[in-house]
Write a sequence for this structure.
């Protein structure tokens, strides 16, 4: 269980967190003690909005739902934007991606309207809806929009400018209606226009709601000028207002950029003379779907120059130093992710020292071209500036935490008798219910802070660990063997592990072996520690790694070969650091275990039938509607279903009727005798 107290119970930490929140527009994320997102909101002034949750004696008060949420908040994160409109778009994206428990309004898509285009139909419809439910993967939703009145007026305007389908159903069976005669409709009901031509027209309309509205604006501009030439100033003013309405509705937003077909990562950083805070925004299909934070050493960083208007552009020396830090983060992050997670474009705040080499390396990892760019103008440069601003706020938080973390790592070094303070510390834990769905977690702290980009999850593969039979010692040994297998192989092939560890700062020159930990912590007592050391002896790494374990009951620290725990106090800084690492490993393992258990419980009984793949199961359930209906169906009825045949139908029927297969044929019609007990 996490040792982090809710902010309402720790007033000092609450005051410190509230001071960190800026007075700017943006989104805030409330998290609980297990790092789950409870609530996501937006605000024109973040500081005022976040503080309102924790003010006692407020005249407005909170609803029971929000009051319950506030009592669970243990951490507050925020992302600043340039406007409240951008915050709205970002809030919607984050809620759809994370589905927080207390966001009941936007999670159900009932608050803000969307525009739907049914691309799956031969003649697509375009309409406004509040229920964002896909009937087909081809259908598209645009939005959400705050001002439904403005959205309705703009859609009406679009339908007047472009000849579009005006009715969901034809008015007449054998002839067109008035809309065709006045040019409002291309005659969809009587197929006066081909489906391909109509799709081309609708693609132009869709560009308007994607923010690519130049064609419509040009058309309206020409119409307004014609009205003005005829001295019809009233009509010209009406078109002018329509132009302004479209500008407002489709205003560019850096949280949802126009070229939505492009996926990219945006990296920027802020640094002082000791530490650098790097922010990585993950943009997928034009939407911000994730944010990662990194910290890196910045010893020797040239200071930023201040001018009358604030910080000046970095000098060549400072730009080069920032580039070196950014390249280290790029190498470290992308060497740990799957190739499909590498986007085709990276936007950088400053050039990297080896930018061409990094491009080639990323392209090789991804299997396709990856482009690195340092934008200087337009929307991409504005996006870099926004990410840099978020990095500045993270730097302020890192400054306050760095001193405490430095003291904690130094205390841990003294406790474990290390020559220097450990930088990378790994923690491991096992989670299961009586052996079922057994999993393990690996969490990583770098310089005393969680480095979530390095977290790893393991499914226990040993056949000895199963439902009804658990073995934590064997499970932990299996995970350690899998984790350090590559290092053991490199040592067996004659590699110098000390040299690899010294050059581990670059993923380009170590063959991927850049994740050596300074300390490995096992959740458990002497038994788990002994099992891990036995696994390391098999790998011939027992003399290379520094390993310890932390027992839950008394918060005692054990090291290999020692009968008794180390002399320590539960509240000393080094032990507190191990406890935070242990609690995070436990939280991560339990979350993964719950996910695996949930997926197993949701599996259909049909998946246990030989020959039943996902596609056939989907078709069978769509045809019969339920498992019970399938179970009651005859072989002939099953064979007539989509994707089935006589052979597969017999297999399914036999699966649901094993008792009829076991009964001897000659006894089928004889009465059953019951023996009195």
């Amino acid at each position: 269980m996490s040792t982090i107290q809710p902010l309402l119970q720790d007033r000092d930490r609450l005051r410190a967190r509230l001071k960190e929140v800026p007075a700017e527009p943006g989104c805030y994320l409330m998290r609980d003690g297990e790092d789950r997102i409870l609530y996501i909101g937006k605000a024109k002034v973040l500081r005022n909005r976040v503080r309102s949750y924790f003010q006692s004696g407020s005249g407005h008060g909170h609803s029971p739902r929000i009051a319950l949420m506030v009592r669970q908040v243990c951490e507050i994160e925020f992302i600043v934007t340039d406007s409240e409109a951008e915050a709205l778009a970002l809030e919607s994206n984050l809620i759809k991606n994370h589905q927080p428990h207390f966001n009941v309004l936007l999670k159900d898509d009932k608050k803000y309207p969307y525009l739907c285009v049914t691309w799956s139909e031969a003649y697509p419809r375009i309409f406004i809806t509040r229920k964002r439910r896909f009937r087909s993967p081809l259908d598209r939703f645009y939005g959400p929009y705050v001002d439904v009145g403005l959205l309705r007026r703009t859609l009406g305007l679009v339908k007047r400018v472009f000849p579009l389908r005006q009715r969901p159903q034809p008015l007449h069976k054998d002839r067109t209606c008035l809309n065709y005669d006045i040019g409002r409709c291309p005659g969809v009901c009587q197929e006066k226009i081909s489906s391909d031509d109509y799709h081309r027209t609708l693609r132009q309309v869709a560009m308007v709601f994607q923010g690519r509205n130049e064609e419509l604006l040009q058309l309206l501009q020409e119409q307004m000028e014609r009205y003005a030439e005829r001295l019809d100033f009233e009509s010209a003013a009406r078109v002018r207002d329509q132009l302004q309405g479209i500008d407002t509705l489709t205003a560019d937003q850096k949280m949802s950029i126009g070229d939505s077909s492009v996926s990219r990562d945006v990296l920027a950083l802020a640094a002082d003379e000791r530490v650098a805070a790097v922010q990585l925004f993950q943009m997928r299909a034009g939407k911000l779907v994730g944010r990662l934070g990194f910290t890196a050493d910045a010893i020797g960083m040239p200071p930023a120059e201040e001018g009358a208007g604030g910080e000046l552009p970095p000098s060549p020396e400072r730009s080069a130093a920032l580039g070196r830090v950014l390249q280290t983060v790029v190498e470290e992050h992308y060497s740990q992710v799957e190739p499909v997670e590498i986007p085709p474009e990276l936007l950088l705040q400053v050039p990297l020292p080896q930018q061409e080499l990094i491009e080639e390396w990323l392209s090789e990892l991804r299997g396709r071209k990856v482009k690195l760019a340092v934008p200087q103008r337009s929307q991409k440069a504005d996006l870099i500036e926004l990410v840099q601003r978020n990095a500045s706020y993270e730097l302020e938080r890192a400054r306050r935490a760095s001193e405490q973390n430095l003291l904690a790592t130094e205390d841990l070094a003294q406790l474990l008798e290390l020559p220097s303070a450990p930088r990378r510390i790994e923690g491991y834990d096992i989670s299961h219910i009586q052996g079922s769905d057994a999993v393990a977690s690996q969490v990583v702290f770098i310089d005393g802070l969680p480095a979530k980009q390095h977290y790893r999850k393991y499914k226990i593969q040993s056949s000895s660990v199963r439902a009804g039979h658990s073995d934590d010692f064997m499970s932990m040994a299996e995970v350690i063997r899998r984790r350090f297998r590559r290092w053991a192989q490199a040592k067996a092939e004659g590699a110098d592990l000390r040299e690899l560890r010294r050059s581990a700062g670059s993923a380009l020159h170590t063959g991927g072996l850049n994740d050596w930990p300074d300390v490995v912590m096992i959740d458990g007592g002497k038994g788990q520690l002994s099992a891990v050391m036995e696994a390391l002896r098999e790998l011939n790494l027992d003399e290379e790694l520094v390993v310890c374990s932390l027992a839950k009951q008394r918060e005692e620290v054990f090291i290999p070969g020692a009968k008794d725990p180390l002399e320590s106090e539960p509240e000393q800084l080094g032990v507190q650091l191990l406890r935070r690492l242990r609690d995070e490993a436990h939280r991560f393992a339990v979350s993964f275990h719950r996910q695996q258990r949930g997926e197993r419980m949701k599996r259909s009984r049909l998946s246990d039938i030989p020959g039943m793949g996902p596609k056939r199961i989907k078709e069978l359930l769509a045809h019969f509607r339920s498992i019970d209906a399938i179970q009651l169906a005859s072989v002939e009825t099953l064979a007539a279903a989509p994707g089935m045949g006589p052979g597969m139908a017999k297999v399914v029927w036999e699966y649901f009727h094993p008792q009829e297969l076991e009964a001897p044929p000659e006894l089928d019609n004889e009465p059953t005798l019951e023996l009195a007990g």
